Amino acid sequence: MEAKGSRASLEKAPHEVASMFDGVAKRYDITNTVISMGQDRYWRHATRKALDLKPGEKVLDLAAGTGVSTVELQKSGAWCVATDFSKGMLAAGRSRPVPMVAGDAMALPFADGVFDAVTISFGLRNVHDFEAGLREMARVTKPGGRLVVCEFSTPVFRPFRTVYLEYLMKALPQVARRVSSNPDAYVYLAESIRAWPDQRRLADRIDANGWSGTQWRNLTGGIVGLHRATKP
C-alpha cells in the first residue's frame, strides 16, 4: 500500500497508523534525530539504563520501528527482539543485527511469561487501546519482570511547556516537511502528544493494567516521561 502523504486520525485505527508509519520508514531515524535536536540518543540510553538489563535476559522491544532502539538495548548483553506492526518500518531496519517480528501490541505473537523485561518507546501513544496493550505486555512478561515506557509527556515548568507546545504545533510540522518522507504524519504526532495523559495519569493507567509500583522520571524537562513498573 502506498502510504506516502498519509496520516492517522486520533481515533488511531490500526490500519491507518500502520500505513502512516510505513510512509515515514525511509527517513524515520534521521527525522527523529533532527526534530528532537539529537535528544533521541539520550532517551534511548536512558531507557536501557532504566530496564537494568542483565546478560542473557530476554527483552521485548515493542514498537521498535527500524530496530535502532533494539540495538541500543543489546549493548547490555541481553537477548532482544524488535517487534512492530509496521512491516515497512521493520523492512527499513532489516540490515540491523537484531531479530525482528511483526506483531500487534494488542495481540502479541508470544507465549505467556517468556520475557524478563519489555519496553515500548514512543509507541504506546499510537496503540488503538493502549490499556489493552499494557495488559498484553504484562501477559508475555514473567512475574517480577520489568516494564519501561518511554513516551512523550508534559513539561513540568510552565513557561517551558508553553514554548514547547508552540514548537510542537507550529514548528515541528515545518521541520518535518524538510526531512521526512511523510511530513503529514508529524501533524498527527503533534496532535497525539498534546492529547496524551500526563505523567501521573499514565502511571495510574499502568498500575491498573497488569503492573504495579509505577514510578517515573522526567527527561528533557518532561518532554519525555520514563515510566518504570514491575509485574506482580
Taking pLDDT < 50 over at least 5 consecutive residues as the criterion, the unreliable ranges are none
- Strand-residue proportion: 15-25%
Give the strand line-up of the largest sheet: 3-2-1-4-5-7-6
The CA-CA distance between the termini, in Å, is 41 Å
Helix-strand topology string: HHHEHEHEEHEHHHEE
Mean of residue pLDDT values: 89
Count of folded domains: 1
Write the CATH fold name.
Answer: Rossmann fold
Strand count, sense and barrel status of the largest sheet are: 7 strands, mixed
**How big is the Rg?**
16 Å
Give me the count of strands: 7
Helix content: 40-55%
* Secondary-structure class: alpha/beta
CATH H-level superfamily: Vaccinia Virus protein VP39
CATH arch. level architecture: 3-Layer(aba) Sandwich
**What's the level 1 CATH class?**
Alpha Beta
- The coarse overall form would be globular
Please outline what is shown here.
The chain has about 230 residues and is an alpha/beta fold.
Notable traits:
alpha/beta; globular; Rossmann fold; single chain; seven-stranded mixed sheet; 42% helix; 7 strands; 232 residues
Report on the architecture of this protein.
The protein has 232 residues and is α/β, with parallel strands linked by helices. It has a single domain (14-230), classed as Rossmann fold (3-Layer(aba) Sandwich), CATH 3.40.50. It is 42% helix and 21% strand. It is built from 9 helices and 7 strands, in the order αααβαβαββαβαααββ. The chain has helices at residues 14-24, 28-35, 39-51, 68-74, 87-92, 130-139, 158-179, 185-195, 199-207; strands at residues 58-62, 79-84, 100-102, 115-121, 141-152, 212-219, 224-230. The chain has a 7-stranded mixed β-sheet with strand order 3-2-1-4-5-7-6, with helices on both faces. Strand 2, helix 5 and strand 3 (100-102) form a beta-alpha-beta unit. The longest helix has 22 residues, at 158-179. The protein is globular and about 45 Å long. The termini are far apart. The mean pLDDT is 89.
